[in-house]
Amino acid sequence: MEIEFASLDDNLARFTLSGARPGFANAFRRAMIGEVPTLAIEDVRIYDNTSALFDEMLAHRLGLIPIKTDLSSYSTQESCSCGGAGCPSCTVTYTLSVEGPKMVTSSDLIPQDPKAAPVYDNIPIVKLTKGQKLVIEARAVLNRGKVHAKWQPTLVCGYKNQPIITISDTCDACGMCVDECPRTILAVKGKKVAVIEGKLPDCSMCKLCERACLASGIGEEPAIRITAEPDRFIFVVEGDGSLPVKEIMVKALSFVKEQADELERQTSEISGEEKK
Ligand code: SF4
Ligand code: SF4
Ligand SMILES: [Zn+2]
User: Fold this and answer.
1) How far apart are CA 271 and CA 185, in angstroms?
2) Would you give per-residue pLDDT tens digits along the chain (276 residues)?
3) Residue 178 CA: which ligand 2 atom is closest?
4) Would the CB of 174 count as within 6 Å of ligand 2?
């Protein structure tokens, strides 16, 4: 199994996973979305709210603000030594006290731990008119995306099989498939159509080119064929900024490995018992 990056920065990764089965590719995708913990606001105490938004709506909006997460400093409440009561190892508190006229944004949330500040300063929470007030205290905890979408570290996390485009010698370079392709992947080169260099990963495998070729009157078989490599996957992963994308990938892979090890341990235990 191999991972080859086409691009990588803290917020976005494009890479190819080769030599993997579809089950593994999907487990990896699901682990990145649902099993890598991040911080998100879970409890909100509202002391004063004369804004136009209900308390529940405010709490919902606060919960969706991405928060920078240092996984070496925080643990989930269930695994924390405080037993889930809430302590500085599993909980971050924030205060917010503002009076209108003002657009209240994520920068108005003052964290008790500066390392756990909101990822972006300019996320709007609510607009206050003159004299309106908002005074709250909020608590963020570490949890997983499978519990609630607010704990997902990814905004985009998907894959597709690597496309294969084959062009046979029956191609007469009529160019109908070139005009039909919505991703401008094809071009006529000499007496045949060809894939433009570097464009193959952009193919969505919509097969409009095959249909155009058949419509050109070529016969029963199109000269262009779209198939996919069964064990090669193109991934796009975009993070919300709470964790670097590389860390999301590493944590997700460790989770899949732990699950596989546990399954192996349990199956060998069962087969050991059966032999007795
Ligand atoms: S399958 Fe769709 S995107 Fe791919 S080359 Fe054909 S028309 Fe273009
Ligand atoms: S439509 Fe068919 S025959 Fe025409 S250029 Fe495309 S592949 Fe060749
Ligand atoms: Zn704790």
Assistant:
1) 52
2) 999 999 999 999 999 999 999 999 999 999 999 999 999 999 999 999 999 999 999 999 999 999 999 999 999 998 899 988 889 999 999 999 999 899 999 999 999 999 999 999 999 999 999 999 999 999 999 999 999 999 999 999 999 999 999 999 999 999 999 999 999 999 999 899 999 999 999 999 999 999 999 999 888 999 999 999 999 999 999 999 999 999 999 999 999 999 999 999 999 999 887 766
3) 6
4) yes
**How many Å separate Cα 74 from the centre of its chain?**
21
Ligand 1 atom with the shortest distance to the CA of 226: 1
Tell me, what amino acid is at 50? T
Ligand 2 atom with minimal separation from the 218 CA = 3
3 state SS of 134: strand
How many angstroms does the Cα of residue 177 sit away from the middle of ligand 1?
Answer: 8
CB-based contact 137:110 (threshold 8 Å): no
Q: How far is the CA of 226 from the centre of ligand 1 (A)?
A: 8
User: 24 and 57: one domain?
Assistant: no
Q: Is residue 100 part of a domain?
A: yes
Domain hosting residue 45, numbered range: 38-151
165 lines ligand 2 (CB under 6 A): no
Distances (CA, A) of 118 to 63, 110, 175: 11, 9, 51
Which residue matches tokens 């064929």? 225
How many Cβ atoms sit within 10 Å of the Cβ of residue 201?
A: 14
Which of residues 151, 175, 195 is at a domain's end?
Answer: 151
Whether 140 and 161 map to the same domain: the answer is no
